[in-house]
Amino acid sequence: MHEMSVAQNLLEKITDEAIKQNAKPVAAKISCGKLNTVNDEVLCFAFEAISKDTLCRDVKLEIEHKPLQAKCKVCNQIFDVDFSKPQCQKCESEDFGLLPDAPLILEEIEFQMEKNHENNKN
Amino acid sequence: MKIIKIEKKILSENQKCSIENKSLLAERKKLCLNMISSPGSGKTTILVRTINELKDRIKIGVIEGDVQTDIDAERIRTTEAPVVLINTEGACHLSAVQIKKALKKLPIDDLDIVLIENVGNLVCPSAFELGEAGKIVVLSVAEGDDKPAKYPAIFAKSKALLINKTDLLGHVDFDMERAKADARRLNKTIEIFPVSAKTGEGLADWYDWLRKTLEQTKTRP
Questions:
Q1: Which of A87, B105, B106, B139 has the fewest CB atoms within 10 Å distance of its CB?
Q2: How would you class B64 by CB atoms within 10 Å of its CB: exposed for 0-12, middle for 13-18, buried for 19 or more?
Q3: What is the CATH number of domain A3-66+101-114?
Q4: B36: enclosing H helix or E strand
Q5: How many contacts does A have with B, using Cβ atoms within 8 A?
Q6: Which residues of A touch B125 (CB under 8 A)?
């Protein structure tokens, strides 16, 4: 359940930005690699639980899982690793080196503009 | 609606702290390894035996991670090796900040190796860098030969795999070759040591690897 640590960290980062923007956050996009072992459902549940009484309570999380890539040592092809059948997609060699896994990243936050802001614009 | 690009690493605080730990250890030429496994695979038994059998030549200190209790730390204390206990109070992994504090309590300058015994869990600890030079994954034959295939992250990230409790091989269905092949599928360079911490079988190769890795740490410019 390390998703709780991830959720805690996310909540801090989104709250900081919300204060800076003086706006209400409603969605956040996250990306992570295959080896980060983040389970979407658990992360969303954890985030919901800890954000309940905060200004981030309406934030919906969107999680993008980036494939783990490897480089073939025979033909140098860079390919996405299929965990059930890890081999080069071009020459089918099993001799490859893993490339660094994508880190956990908070990509963007969507904010709802306050009513009077929108009115001012119009 | 307004969308703000953030593009910041989550857990960046842990990452930053793990880099600080790593450089503190590297400057002093200390080898630090992070041991990860399921509960009951025999990490503590391996540690106790390793410390006792190498203690004339190699000084090992231990950071012991446990959800509750000091049962494991007490077992390590019987070896007279310095040990710092971290009770995570329910958390499923150790974090770099905890290691930073623990390192301050260890007599680092008197040690050659710092071994971190992580909380028993094959999933979560693999996502948290602590500042170690490498991860050691321990799997016992009683857990089944399918674990490297089912938990690829930890096997992909580890420098060495200890397959423990080989004394039980006649009693459980464990295909050693399958486990090895699955572990190597994502990690060609992983060193694999089938061992029995109970009988001592296979431990000599693990000790050789530890000595060799320590030597490399000490001679690195």
A1: B105
A2: buried
A3: 3.30.2320.50
A4: strand B31-37
A5: 95
A6: 2
Q: How many residues does this entry show for chain B?
A: 221
Does the beta carbon of B181 lie under 8 angstroms from any beta carbon of chain A? no
**Chain A CB contacts of B2 below 8 Å:** 21, 23, 110-111, 113
Beta-bridge mates of residue B65: B86
CA–CA dist A12, A46 (Å, integer): 14
Residues of A whose CB is below 8 A from B11: 5-6, 9, 104
Q: What is the residue extent of each domain of chain B?
A: 12-216
* pLDDT tens per residue, range A30-67: 999 988 888 999 999 999 999 999 999 999 999 999 99
- CB-CB: which of B5, B11, B15 is closest to A108? B5
Give the residue from A10, A55, A64 showing the smallest Cα distance to B13: A10
Fold of B12-216: Rossmann fold (3.40.50)
The tokens describing A41, both together, are 């459902």
Give the tokens for residue A94.
């099993």
Q: How many angstroms from the chain centroid is the CA of residue B140?
A: 14
